[in-house]
Amino acid sequence: MSIDTETARKVAKLARIAVPEEELPALAQEFNAILGFVEQLGEVDVDGVEPMTGVTPMRLCRRDDVVTTGGMPDKILSNAPDAREGFFAVPKVVE
Question: Where does the source fall among the domains of life (predicted)?
């Protein structure tokens, strides 16, 4: 796929980026270079390669999935702009 200056103009407009008219050909070339790189990635044989979330093999710290009360309601409610009777007070939004 090849990107021309008209397509680059449309992409810039959709991204809400002001690109001067004289810079559109250079932007189209950059888009074409990016698309070429993506096409190269599509040619890589990844059969049998495990997906990874990072470059170093690390296990995530796990904790027991238990329900708690939090143990600190006063500390949590101290950040609220309005709290009443141990709960966050919010404006009424439904009539």
Answer: Bacteria
